[in-house]
Amino acid sequence: MKETFYVTTPIYYVNDVPHIGHAYTTIACDALARWHRMKGRRVFFLTGTDEHGEKVQKTAASKGLSPRELADQVVANFQGLTPALTISNTGFIRTTEPRHYASVQNLFRKSLANGDIYLGEYEGWYCVPDEAYWTDLQLGDGGNCPACGRPVEKRKEPSYFFRLSKYQQPLLEYYRKNPGFLRPESRRNEVIAFVEGGLNDLSVSRTSLSWGIPVPDAPGHVIYVWYDALTNYITGLGYPSPTEEFKTFWPADVHMVGKDILRFHAVYWPAFLMSAGIAPPLGVFAHGWWTVEGRKMSKSLGNVVDPYEMVRKYGADAFRYFLLREVSFGLDGDFSEKELIKRANSELADKLGNLLNRSLGMLGKYFDGVVPAPGTLDPADAALSACAAGTVSAADAAMEDVAFHKALAAIIELVTKGNEYVQSMQPWALAKDPSLRARLGTVLYHALEASRVAALLMAPFTPTAAQKLWEALVPGGGPLEEARIDRAGAWGGLAAGAALPKACIVFPKIETGA
Fold it and tell me: Which domains occur in the chain, in start order?
């Protein structure tokens, strides 16, 4: 097993406030980071903010602020996602930090020195919101930006160019040798088709704005915001200094991105790194977008989902659970508060909460809350134990595939089987016959053990609730993230003789008002 794991969110642009898209990517990365910690790996999890570029400059001017003042104001909204969403990131980077200037300029100099960056003149169709140039062919019949659909403007300016054309074959070879680099498969095919279609050299500087990192020894030129932004992934590990973190964690295991910025991460970024003699990342995963009740999110429609509001209304655990459970990760999803409530109530409260609390309640009633030692397994006990072992394996395989929905489906299936087991064994009936007391204890032991394994596996997804469940079932068990899935996930970890509470309500039913 690889001993380290490095996962990143894209850095978020500070010309706006956080929405569901930011929350989704960050929560997904957090679940991965937590899972891999519980696998025993050393994890580095980086997020941050992208604070340069024309959009920031224009937004700041419209508010009567300097770009730096705007960035300083807005960054708190993104930093606040960490406690609000229970995020466990290792580092947070701002592209306005001095360490990042040094990193970007060092990378730029390396490509400049080897001839991969040269001075020329650029003319093309420029999309200000996406900070990207497009060719006539790429614009298509509509004449608007193919990425966001908004109008573009013709621009001509002196520019430094990166010889992206030189890296067409090296990129294709890298994709071929590393089939897991681009996920999901549909996005891999999309990127390969784009690169096979031919690559033009890329403009990597601007003279039309001042808010950015200066090109070394070239007054008036500012480094293209995407070149600047992508470099954060190595800045966060200490580059250009030969730090222990950089040597330990680079190349990144997963850059998690929205599908709209896949090209920058899967084509430009590996090429920049190859040019500088740095290993490309090991993986890029492009997830889908969220609509809201079937409609595209937009300020004009007033349907932008505020993650802070969702946490206030439903709690971070329910919000996290819904986003990772509702849709196959990689595909588009539709957000609905009604569906969030339905998921939380039917699966978290009615299944997981019910299994735990009916078992704890009977343990308190029949054994004064003290866990009995289990007796000989009968076929039903063995089947539940086998289901738990299968769940651990299935969840692990799903997380290696970045398939959160599959991992959660497996956990909920275990809980469902646990409830069916209790219903079938009828411990309340066993309690009426003193001669069956040993069997009663065995049944309650296994029901609680299924709850314990489920609590362990839920930790990356609903960390606060899972920790409370763990503390109820494993007195003195300590932080869940210090538990190891292979050991703690083995059946029989519930300690006989332990005193447990009579209830542990961590997933109360969400009232709908209906």
Answer: 336-488 (1.10.730.10)
